[in-house]
Write a structure and sequence with these properties.
This protein is mainly α. It has 5 helices and 2 strands, in the order αααββαα. The chain has one domain.
Length: 122
Amino acid sequence: MKKRRARRKYHNWEIEIAKGNTNAFYNSTDWDIVREAVLNRDKNKCQFFLGKWNDGKHFPNKIKIVNADTVHHIIPIKQRPDLALNKDNCISLSFEAHEIIEDRHRWTWRKKKKKFTTEEKW
């Protein structure tokens, strides 16, 4: 369990997220509390790779036990800011599963071409 910051003044996160201050939300103590509660609820296991949750488009290749380190909003907070701190709207995922769900996995695993600064001359 990480050491939590002291709670600052009360924020109306619906208004802040609607303004576009999602970074302030994700760095807040309120989000830390919800994140820890969701990870504890799911026993720090990735629900996607356990086969207990999918978004309807993405499915795991095989069932395996993976530790979760990311909490994902099922309904994005930009669409529904009122559900930002709702534990029922959150699910525990591993980093790899979160990249798959967010459709960023295509770019993550791409091999980069090696560039040589100078050619070898013999």
